[in-house]
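Lecture notes, unit on protein representations.

Consider one protein chain, 219 amino acids long.
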Amino acid sequence: MKLDKKVPDFLKLLVVNNNREWFNDNKKLYLEAKALFEEFILAQIVEIQKFDSQVKDLQIKDCSFRIYRDIRFSKDKTPYKIHFSAYMANGGRKSPYAGYYTHVEPDANLIAGGLHNPHKDILRKIRTAIYENPEAFKKIMEKKDFKAIFSKIYGERLISAPRGFSRNFKDLELIQLKSYDFFKYISDDDLVSDTFFENSINDFKLLLPLNNYFNQIIK
């Protein structure tokens, strides 16, 4: 399986033509790129289901994000996102559970896993679990294969300790986070290479223990 070059090519055009007139005039290009992206995501879903039983019965419509931006409360009035993306987790893109994310955007492609901006109740559960047993979380992050690909946690963090937690906690930086995102950035060339699909699945497999850790806490 290979991501068709028409997908990033359309997005590159959209970056410099982010207006409704151009988009409507080129709707066929959009629909073709969207279909090709979704074909790629469906293939990823099929492979993820082979090693993660929590990702089941997912359909493309459950996972893919719309390209249309909500500009009602935004200073940026460009009407379209400049990326295609999908979140593959139990329940799809609106799921509270940890899952697998694919993001295609010129010069900013990535695959990811973990938890992005979890609800405050879930965040407190995660922080409590780490606070009570930090070694369980650190053991996952410090595995050689995992660390070679996902070397850091991305996400906003508090300046001090969360309310109810000691600021003297030895791994304070692990509970100051508001998100637990693990990214791997992909170059534009690698994105359309013959190896990207297989590599993405192998990287998602590395994320399985992390996602299981989070999801067992959330349940």
